[in-house]
Amino acid sequence: MNTIQEQPSAIRSYYEALAKGKLLAVTCKACGKHTFPPTGCCEHCGSWDVEEADLSGEATLLFATHNLTPACHPRFESMAPYVYGHLKLKEGPIFQAIILGIEPKPAALRELFERGPVPAKAETLQTDDLPVLAFRIAG
């Protein structure tokens, strides 16, 4: 499975939205929590009673590091080396993504670490086969 058209429906919907610059999750009608990226059921309570929801794209970068090894997939080779990190979305989910606006160098990462959690905003990067979620740190 390499293209948006070949993905299962929840994943396909996520990538179609991401290609348009939107973050798509599912919201559980039973517990009210978000599952991101979206799946067919709630990751919190297991309910299948979920509906698609757009997320703000606003997040807090909690931790960042860089890759010094070869990229994990050919779609990332042109970006390497890059910074990636753990982010908490305004709506609650925590996940990993590429971080833009910071050099993949120890001194830059140390400065970022000393700043503590920083705000970040979602951006979409287009690779040869799929859009990729990234976040740009503020200032």
Task: Explain briefly what this protein structure is.
This protein has two helices and eight strands; from the N terminus they run H-E-E-E-E-E-E-H-E-E. By secondary structure, it is an alpha+beta fold.
Walk me through what this model shows.
- By secondary structure, the protein is an alpha+beta fold.
- The protein has two domains: 1-55, no CATH class; 56-139, no CATH class.
- The chain is built from two helices and eight strands.
- The strands form two sheets. The chain has a five-stranded mixed beta barrel with strand order 4-5-6-8-7. A three-stranded antiparallel sheet has the order 2-1-3.
- A hairpin with a 4-residue loop joins strand 7 and strand 8.
- The longest helix is centred in the first third of the chain and has 11 residues, at 9-19.
- The chain is globular, with a radius of gyration of 16 Å.
- Residues 16-47 form the ChsH2 rubredoxin-like zinc ribbon domain.
- This is Zn-ribbon domain-containing OB-fold protein.
- InterPro entries: ChsH2_Znr, NA-bd_OB-fold, Thioester_dehydratase-like.
Descriptive keywords:
single chain; 139 residues; alpha+beta; 2 domains; five-stranded mixed beta barrel; three-stranded antiparallel beta sheet; 8 strands; globular
